[in-house]
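Hi R.,

Here's the chain you asked about this morning:
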Amino acid sequence: MSMDAELKSLKIDRGRTGKKSSLAAKWIIGGIALFLLLGVASTVFSSLNRPKELATMVVPAPVAPGGSMSAAGSILDATGYIVAAHKIEVASKVVGRVLWIGVNKGERVNEGQIIVRLEDEEYRASLNTAIGQLESLNARMAEAKSGSRPEEIQRAQADLEQAKADGKNAVVSLERIRQLVESGVSSKQALDDAVARMDGFENRVKSLERTLELARLGPRKEAIAFIQGTINEAQGRVEFAQTQMNNTVIRAPVKGTILDRNVEKGEFVTTGFSGVGGPKGFVVSLADLSDIEVELDINQSDFAKLQFGQKAIVFTDAYPDKKYKGSITEISPEANRQKATVQVKVKILNPDDYLRPEMNATVQFQENGKQFQNSGKQEAAAELAVVVIPKSAVRNSSVWIVEGGKAEKRIVRPKGENSAGLKVEGLSGGETLILDPPADLKIGAAVRSKS
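And the predicted structure, written out as tokens:
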């Protein structure tokens, strides 16, 4: 048999070998799938039982004015702003250009201290004109009261004597002409002319006698009274011009601190508000910072808790370790319809240099006649303790804390807020607080702090 024939006679039995290979492959695939399922299950189990990593913080100690326990007998906390009880915008009484300004923002000034000078050339010229008119009228009055001068009386006397002499001459001339007329030498017309001339001289003598008498008597009382009235009018013009010029020097009306400097040298000021970009309506604003108060908007639902004169404790976010005594000195007679609030002002009784207008402050109103007595029980302390926490930690009037690695829920009561966060009751301080708790967080869920 040849080699080719032997090769052709060889055959492979594929039936039995194929069945064994298929079964092995199935076992291998099944094992791999089972291994994967076990891995997935283990991962899921580990994920479900792994503690959630959440952002946390330790609740700070209770806070209140001065950093201690919440003040005894507090019935309401409210936030507002410090304002000056009497803020003054010092304006000019005259129109003019600023020549000099001698104060800066924040400086303290005394009552009557010069703070601004305006240019006064026009006002000085008006004053000089008024003074000149007054002096002229005073001289006229002096002349009137002094009466006629001796020389004027002598002249009037001389004029009278001359008139009398002329009158005598006229009488002599009349007699001569009458004789000539009777003798037929002169006409009747010449006699009439002589009589008229004599009558004229007689009237002139009487007039000059009256003039001499008036010269000796001086001016009439009515003329002097008229001059006096004119003098009074001129005196008023002088005083007004002097006041206008004095008003170019602007002084501090009260003792206080400069809150704002509204003008600079060269700027124009007016006596009233002229709009943006126009002349300035006031030069500086100032206030006495020893007389300050806190302005609050109290919800109408809390308004019934307060009354005029009620005591309070005031503290600021800027200086939480300082507390100030206060009392209600003003309650608005009407409410704010839009905000549903009533404005209340609390006067700070012991202010210091740390307080500034427009600084935000928290006022803790005290319940009259009641003081908190520490019973020594932790529950009572926790009930009245006030802590400040982030607003993001509060959800539906509740917070989540961590106890023994588990999430627990606590109900809290808001007691106001400040720049650091929300003030609440219901926590004693020292708890581990969960920040931004997820919506699906369950009581008892395993949690741990996120590193």
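The CA atoms of residues 255 and 267 lie 25 Å apart.

Let me know if you need anything else.
M.
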